[in-house]
Specification:
This protein has 484 residues and is an alpha/beta fold. Helices cover 36% and strands 18% of the residues. It is built from 15 helices and 19 strands. The strands form three sheets. Strands 11-12-18-19-17-16-13-14-15 form a nine-stranded mixed sheet, with helices on both faces. α9 links the parallel β14 and β15. The structure holds fructose -6-phosphate. Fructose -6-phosphate binds next to loops.
Length: 484
């Protein structure tokens, strides 16, 4: 299972909308299986906006719905027919008769179920979008439903009736039966997206992802499917302990936050000068160090840049290395000093490379942070070069920007959004390099860049059709992620 955790449901729904758009882009006559409920509403709204602006069309697509209350008047505002019509179908451009919702009052419900299942099998579902109940139900397949179930009539459980009472005048009014596609029907979809938002879904999500595959948790059947993506907000993902999660992708930018970073990895951060790690990537490094082992490699001594109170080169080196030690305690890294000769000779020397290669052999990193390809500072250019030469070809590279060279348009593909508290520790870490900040306010530069990035990147990449950009934390650090 692929599990995407977004910092809020708006961002999550944007990611889902991209996936729907992708599906239609690849196959205009995509056959969908759609949910009702509160969860898909932001997604339906986004899709409707895209259709309105001409960016997306369902004109060749077809759909089935997961379920419908049995015995409800189809014109009742809470029938799933009304729900779909009011929230989606009336706002998009499906052709007439291409939307199938189970009948609410079929003459012979059993026969109707058979026909509905047959029709689904005839066309085949390309993309199922589903929600999940607090008890782990999907569609109206309540706990205990057979994994082999197909479209059938079902009794709703007390928990579902209670949960859905919010849509009716009273609990009494909630229908007690429904027609629902079965767990086998849903599993027949080529691709499944499950959306879940809010804390009251957290246990169901944990049971679905990390629990055993059991009919007691209907959604756990998804563990057996080979193309399932869960798109969650932080609250619904909050009980996942074991599972690695992914960031949402918006306009081809992966949007990382503290809640969807890599876990249990070995990471190296190459810092050309002693203070580059906190200046360029201090927030990300601090966040990564909480659930990974992070090694910070200070490549050069930076002795030339100490202005005050130091007569000898050794004193200057000691000053800078002591500052780095203080900073590393804040970031949470394990520190290594390379003292590379290329700092003074301006050329990579065999001895430096040998030392670094040996260090990489011992550390054996999964991920490496290093200056981006377009950095213009001579020490950063050489640092990237030596870092790459020392790394085995399996490492994931996260190239960062520095105040000397910001990324050009689309030269990055990932952003890390972070809150004020993390900016506070990033600044504290930068300010441990007193010999530097007393000459040049790198703290101010780093804070300004991160807040400028939040403003402009959000407007360029995280806004939708002239709407206000999605909410993110107030700061961004940018990265280009690639495979080495
Ligand atoms: C809806 C459906 C249900 C809902 C689930 C979550 O067609 O089949 O399984 O997806 O009950 O409902 P919400 O989204 O309202 O929390």
């Amino acid at each position: 299972m692929k599990i995407i955790v977004a910092s809020n449901k708006e961002t999550a729904s944007r990611n889902a909308a991209h996936m729907v758009q992708d599906a239609i882009g690849k196959k205009p006559n995509t056959v969908f299986l759609f949910p009702t409920g509160s969860t898909p509403l932001p997604l339906y709204e986004l899709l409707a906006e895209r259709v309105k602006s001409g960016k997306l069309s369902f004109a060749h697509a077809m759909s089935f719905n997961l379920d419908e209350y049995l015995g409800i008047d189809v014109n009742h505002p809470e029938s799933y027919h009304s729900f779909m019509e009011n929230n989606f179908f009336s706002k998009v451009d499906f052709k007439k008769n291409s939307n199938n919702v189970p009948e609410a009052n079929p003459k012979d419900p059993e026969k109707f179920c058979e026909e509905y299942e047959e029709k689904i099998n005839k066309y085949g579902i390309d993309l199922a979008i589903i929600g999940i109940g607090r008890n782990g139900h999907i569609a109206f397949n309540e706990p205990g439903t057979s994994f082999d179930s197909i479209t059938h009539v079902t009794d709703l459980t007390k928990s579902t009736i209670e949960a859905n009472a919010r849509f009716f005048k009273s609990e009494k009014e909630v229908p007690k039966k429904a027609i629902t596609t079965g767990l086998k029907t849903i599993s027949s979809a080529q691709k499944i997206i499950l959306l879940a938002f809010g804390e009251d879904k957290a246990q169901a999500i944990k049971d679905t992802v990390e629990g055993e595959i059991t009919e007691k948790v209907p959604a756990s059947i998804l563990q057996k499917h080979n193309d399932v993506t869960l798109i969650l907000d932080i609250a619904s993902a909050s009980k996942l302990k074991k599972t690695e999660t992914l960031p949402p992708t918006l306009s081809d930018i992966r949007l990382y936050s503290e809640f969807n970073l890599p876990k249990n990895k070995t990471i190296v951060v190459f810092s050309p000068h002693p203070d580059d790690a906190p200046i360029c990537a201090g927030a990300l490094v601090t966040a990564l160090a909480k659930e990974n082992t992070v090694h910070e490699i200070i490549l050069t001594t930076g002795h030339r840049a100490v202005a005050k109170n130091c007569n000898s080169m050794n004193d200057r080196i000691t000053t800078r290395e002591n500052e780095a030690r203080e900073e590393s305690k804040i970031l949470g890294t394990k520190l290594h000093f390379l003292r590379a000769h290329f700092y003074d000779s301006n050329d990579i020397e065999e001895e430096d490379l040998k030392k670094l290669r040996n260090l990489m052999k011992t550390i054996n990193p999964d991920i490496a942070l290093l200056p981006q390809k377009g950095d213009t500072h001579p020490t950063h250019i050489l640092s990237r070069k030596i870092a790459l030469s020392s790394l085995p070809h399996k490492v994931e590279l996260w190239s960062y920007e520095s105040p000397w060279a910001l990324f050009g348009h689309k030269a990055f593909n990932a952003a890390f959004e972070f809150p004020k508290e993390l900016m506070k520790s990033k600044l504290e870490a930068i300010r441990k390099h007193v010999s530097q900040t007393e000459r040049t306010r790198f703290d101010t530069a780093a804070e300004t860049i991160a807040s400028f990035r939040r403003i402009t990147i959000a407007e360029q990449f995280f806004s939708e059709l002239g709407k206000k950009p999605i909410d993110t934390e107030p700061y961004l650090e940018l990265f280009h992620i690639s495979q080495w």
